[in-house]
Each structure stands twice: as C-alpha cells, then as structure tokens.
Amino acid sequence: MRSFRFKLMMASIICILLPACITLATYNYLTQDAVKEQAITNSQESMLLVNNYVTNSLKYMLNIANSIQMDSELNSIFKSNVSGHRYTGPAAEYDEFYDKNKIMKQIENIKIGGEECYVTILLANGTYYSSYSIYEYNPLDLAKEPWFSQLKNLYGFESYWVGTTPTVFESEKVRNPYQLSVVRTLRGEGSTIYGYVIVTVMENQLNHNFENLPNNQEFMIMDANNIILSHNNGEKIGQTFPFPYVNQDSQQISSDIVEVNNEEYLMTQRSLSFTGWKLVSITPYKMAISKVEAIFNKVFVFQIISFILFLLLLLYLLGTFTKPLVRLGKVALTVQKGDLEKRSNIRGEDEIGRLGYLFDQMLDRIKEMIAEVSLTQARKRTAELAMLQAQINPHFLFNVLNSIRMKVLLRGDRESAEMIGSLSKLLRMTINQEKETISLHEEVEIVMDYVVLMNMRQKDPISLKTDISADALLIKVPRFFLQPLIENALIHGLTQSAGTIMLKAWMEEKTLILTVEDNGKGMPEEILHRLRKNLVSGEEQGQGDVESPKGFSSIGLLNVHERMRLTYGDKFTMRIDSSEGEGTRITMYIPHLEVTTTYV
After folding, report:
1. Residue ranges of the Histidine kinase domain (predicted)?
2. Is residue 597 part of a domain?
3. pLDDT per residue as tens digits for the range 162-177
4. Taking the alpha carbons of 374, 375, 378, 384 in that order, is the dihedral positive or negative?
5. How many structural domains does the chain have?
6. How far apart are CA 550 and CA 484, in angstroms?
7. What is the CATH number of the domain that holds 66?
8. Residue 534 belongs to domain with CATH number
9. pTM for this structure?
C-alpha cells in the first residue's frame, strides 16, 4: 500500500510533468508558426522602409515634372516659341537670352535640395532646354526612342514611366550603367502637344536604398510584365522575374512562402503607387528564420532546465512538508488500536500545526463528546415525537369539524353546515404545507369560502363576482395570495359594508392578468401615491398601517407583493388604481412559469 507522501509526490509530478510536456510540445509546434510570422514581420518592415525611400525618389521626379508643367510663365514661353514667335527689335538677342536663362534657372531651382537628376524640355518644333550640355547627350535623340510614339496618349497629369534603359549620358555610363525616366506632355488649346518634359535619374539612386538591408535579402523593382528594373546588386536588371507572382495589383504588403527548385523562399511584395511597378523582396526561408529560430531554441532549452530544477526542488519541499503528516498518521494508527493516551505533539502556525493541536484536543475530549452525542440523540427523538404530535392535532380538528358539519346538516341547518364546511376547507389548506402552489380555480374557491365566512360575521353581506377565462383556471399560483387582497377590499374599501368585489383573470400570451376591484370608498390621491411608493420601497405605510380585525389572515398588501416578487422575480408587477368615492382596483401581471419557484 502506497503512503500518502508517495501519492502526493507522484500526483505533483504528474500534474506538473504532464502539463509541462504538453506545453513544451505545443510550444515547439506553435514556434514554427511564430517563427514564420516573425520572419514575415521582419520582411514586411524592411519592405515598408524601402518602399518609403523608393516612393520618395519617384515622387521627387514627379514633383519636378509637375513644377514645370504647372509654371504658367515657362509654358507661355514654350507656347510662344512653338507658335513661331521671333525675337525682334534692338533687344531681340537679349530677350531671347533672358527667356532661355529664366528657363534654366527655374530648372535649377526646382532641383535644389534634391537628388541628382537630368531634366529635358523638348518642344514640338525641335527646340529643347536641358539641365545638361549637348556633349553629354543630344536631347533630339529622345524622339528616336521606341517609347516616344506612346506619349501621344498622355493627357493632363498622366505620366509615362520609362523602364530601365542603358545610360545615355557620357559622364554617367561608367559609374551608372542604367537609368529610369518619367515623361509628361505639354498640351495647349485643343489638346495639341507642344512639348515634353523628361526627368531622368540613375538606377543606382534607387539601388542605394537597398544597401543597408541584410545580405541574404534581395530587393528589386519590376514593371507590369515582371521585368526587373532595379536590383540591389544590379546583376538581374532586364531579366524576367523567375518566381510565381501573386496580388499584382494590391496596394497592401503581402507575403508568401514559395518553393522553387525544392527550396523555399520568403517573398514579400507591394505595388508602387502611380507607376504601375512593383517592389519585391526575396529571401531564402531558412536564412530568414535562422536568427529568430535560434532565439526560440534557446528559450526552449532554458525552459527544460528550469523545469528539471524546479521539479527537484518541489520533491524536496514536499518531503519536508509531509513529515508532520506521516507522524500524525502513525499516532492515528495507535489511537485506532485503542491507545487514547498517545499524542502527536505537532505544533505550528500553519494548517498542519493546527491540525496536530486539534487532533490532540480531540483525543482529550473524546469521552465528553461521546456523552454529548448520546444526549443529543435522546433530545432528537423527543423533538421528533413532539413534531409528530403537532401534526396529529390539526388533522384531528379537521376530522372533528367534518363530523360536526355532517351532524348539523342531518339536523337541517344547511347554513351552519355550509359555514363549517367553508371553515373546514380553509383548515385543510393550512394543514397541507407541502403544497406551495395550487391552480387558480382552487385559489378562487378559497376566497369564495372566505367571503362566505366573512358574510356570516358582518351585518351587511358583500357580493363576490368572478370572471375567469378558461385558459387561466389551471395556471399554478402561490397559495393564499388572493385572500389578503379580498380582505383589504372588504375591510378598507367597503369598510365591512354592503358592496361588490369583482375578480377577473385572463391570459395574454404567457402572462396571467388578474384584477381585484371593489366599488367602495376609494382613497385620496395622496394616500394612493404613498401606497404606490411603499410598494417600491418595501415599507408598508398608508392604508397598510390599518390593522385588520382578527380573521383567518392578516397579511398585508405589501406582504403579497413581496411573496409574488420572491416567486416570480422582476417579471411580476402590481398596479394600484383608485379614485375617491369610486372604488379601488388592484391589477397583477403574473408570468406563467413551467416550474414555479418556491417562495420563502
């Protein structure tokens, strides 16, 4: 047989070991998803950073084109030039130089503070203005480019983004082999093109945004045909992107794990607004998760070591804490054999110390407790006998009343027999305490018997009229909840004089609506207001303060309200309406419950 200490230790080990193993297994399983999510998060953060840099560079090119396209003074000079205007007069040569100088200064002002770029304004008549010399590149050669014919479809602020092409500027060819450009058209009245604005930057100016990224992460810019326009090492420019591409038109960042040649890659992408291009990053998945996975592995090893150390500490502490219990068990075994003089002498401020002290006290008082138990059993038997006798007396009275009623009826005194019969019925209901609820028709019979008894007591009889719908007769209600209302109407409403009490009941959906109405004296407005307030506050005042004469029941209106609220809860409501000289009506809304709650 295993000891308590052994069972406690085994239970502790199982309760710790099993959850720990499940936790570690779950941790190992979930770590894979966490590593993947972290790798995706890192990739997307890098994407956001690069996207901001690249977007700013592209917006800078657009801002230059916008500034020239929106400058009315420059456009006025361009239109005048294209229309064939000739500088005349003695200052013709100066005016021509002044206008050209104004254009060049404006171009230089636009470029101040920004990245290095090449700006070309090519007019329809072959005139051009550029931020570079003709020795670098002849602007007229732009009209020979294969994309130039597509510019006729540009209107307003529409832009044509020229993909990566070999650098045409002599001084840049060695350092920057590729360039990118954006083109805008200048249109006059009738949408006639009178010029073009071309802004060109070197591909390396976009490429340098990728320099501070991890070495294993490739970033590239692609056009709508998945042709690589820019790459962080420049080797793949002009090639077709080899990976499957998803969400090509999405403005949001998306990441996915793709498999190419049996190797997984983490691909993150986002569309570049206003260009039709895409920004894509590619990272070998194993390299993307290597650092994060190493951190998770270290945490896992730390958890294993911590678990083993704390398990050993737990076993030691359990052995120490259970020593007093082992000793207490040995003392209990001695007592079981009949030695009541043995004591544990375990003391302390904790539960075990108090248990040892109480155990010793129990042994000291064992004989006294046996005597007390014997005395208690004797008293219990006496109490049970008294309760039995108390139950016999009401039944005896009920049987005697029935015997008297039969003898009176045989002698021909039917009125007295009916009075005794009504009293007998009421007595029967008081005896049957186990029946907390009765049907409504039984409750109505009780109040009818009550009225019969009250009419025999007072000089002027009252009339109790009922109007109960058939579907309401079998509804279960608490016993004796109507009698106090009838008593109230008889004593306070009719003042024990002749009159009529009307009892109505009907069903609306699952609610029993019951009214008790008298044609008595009613009550003043202030008393009615106070009575309504007392029902809410729970204090019986006003008419409830008038003590009923001694009768079968003196339960007040508030008592009925409280009983019904205890039975049905907040769904039960009671309303009192009265007018002075016209009578009083009490309306109760009783919810129909499948199982009626027992009231206190």
Report:
1. 392-594
2. no
3. 988 999 998 888 888 9
4. negative
5. 3
6. 13
7. 3.30.450.20
8. 3.30.565.10
9. 0.48
